[in-house]
Amino acid sequence: MKLKKLFAGVAAAATLLGGMAFGAATASAADGDVVTANATFTFNADNAGQLTGRTIAAYKLADYVQYGSGDNAVYGMKTNAANAVVVNGALKTALNSQTDVDLADALAAGQLDVSAARPWTATAAGAASTTRAFANALAAAQGLQAVAPAPQLTVNGTSATVSLPAGVYLFLDTTEGNADVTKAVPMIVASGTVNDQKQLTDPTADATVDFKNTKNEEKTKEVSTATAAIGDTLTYTLTGKVANPAPESFVFTDRPGTGLTVKAGTEFTVTADGKNVPDSDYTVAGLDADLQGDGVKTFTVTLNDPADYAGKTIVVKYAAQVNEQAAGLKDGVTNELLKNDGKTYQKITTKSYGFDFTKKNAAGQAVPGAKFQVKNGDTVLKFFAKDGVYYLAADQTVAADNKTVFGTLTTPANGQLVFGGLGNGTYTVEETAVAEGYQNFTGKFTVTIANADGKLSDSAALDPFGLVDPAKKTVVNVKSVAELPKTGAAGIAMFVALGVVLAGAAAAVYGKSRRMGSALRA
Fold this sequence. Notes:
Layout lengths: L2 H15 L15 E2 L3 E7 L11 E12 L6 E6 L4 H11 L8 H6 L21 H11 L13 E3 L2 E7 L1 E7 L13 E4 L2 E2 L5 E3 L4 E4 L9 E4 L9 E9 L9 E6 L3 E3 L6 E4 L2 E2 L5 E4 L5 E2 L6 E5 L9 E10 L10 E6 L5 E7 L2 E9 L9 E6 L2 E2 L2 E4 L2 E4 L16 E2 L5 E7 L2 E9 L10 E6 L5 E3 L10 E2 L4 E4 L11 H32 L2
Parallel strand pairs: 2-11, 24-35, 28-30
Antiparallel strand pairs: 1-3, 2-6, 3-4, 3-7, 5-6, 7-8, 9-10, 12-13, 13-21, 14-20, 14-22, 15-19, 15-21, 16-17, 16-21, 18-20, 22-23, 24-30, 25-26, 25-29, 25-31, 27-28, 31-32, 32-33, 34-35
């Protein structure tokens, strides 16, 4: 922004020309000619989106006046007559003066400065900017006369230009801010250059300034895991940066999908650049009761005063539970972060998985009536039935094997058990009872889930009789030892059976010998 140099030059001109050029009582049109030639005002932006579709209003605060001609020409300035009362009143407010202040006098006295760093509220030295206060006071004032017709910005990528008669202007962004771009703060811009003696020499020289708005960065969303079981708790992290200058509002709008519960009273952790934000600085709305996600209902987390956090990165964390409505959702549970216009910034998906197997006999026929349990470690898991599938129950503390929750699952007529709602991990499946009419040889195997439906695997330790076929996902029941499928399994079974018979015979012999000994002692 060239305002600082220009103001220094104007101050030098004030010393040279006295009060005549700065609105003193003796000044008149005869004292000098107002410069009417145009200057180009250029607005630069970091992103083309900051300028696209923007409209502005221009208010002339001061005219440049030429005295003399040719090499003898000198320039001064005076407050624009149409806006003098409002300009001087705004200066009085900005400078906290008890009396009216004339713009030329304030410039000559060096009372105006440059707010050069975002959010353009302070000088380079960190002091409060009087020029920023002046611009804000002008924007809030009544009666300021705008240039007519309103100038049209000519946008070329990340810069835009407008041509106006040389002078000092207030530019206001007349386009409301939105989810993508903030409204620019009021801008005071002056055309012209100064020489080494700090004298204004070229009043029509172009002026360049940042268009003082910001393109909002897109907010993002993350979830603690992409795979979860029904009943698991997920942690969601929302991240966004408050624009600088700050927008009118800064809101995270979250839309949980079917299968997610965000409970009333959920604890939120909110930080700004890594430091905790006090509870009083933000508001959570939409969680007066448990929110059962349906892809329609939303809740919000709103910064109460975004200006307090301008330029800072805000991170929000909260927990949600996968509920039993997640059962059967092919694409898992989703959670969306929305823009202010209701469109989606980001959709996060968390999936659960399952597995299945079929109980058969040696002839390959389905076997109903066999009973199984699924364990996570030593814990027997509980399931509920929906559409022919057993899904993990969200509440694992309820009593098992009632009308709605089952810890022991019985194979149906087709012999197949199908499970769902499980997260990553290794589970053990154990046959606890064979079907009626079958020998008491039971199958046992493990299932591993790793971001996909589970894979069955067996081992000699778990399945010594070879009843499990992981590739075919079958578990066999047999009616006789001879039907055992694995080589040597029948022999093992015979040895087991023989051991039982021999143990029985030994017991009988021992019993008879005891009775004989008793008889001899009678």
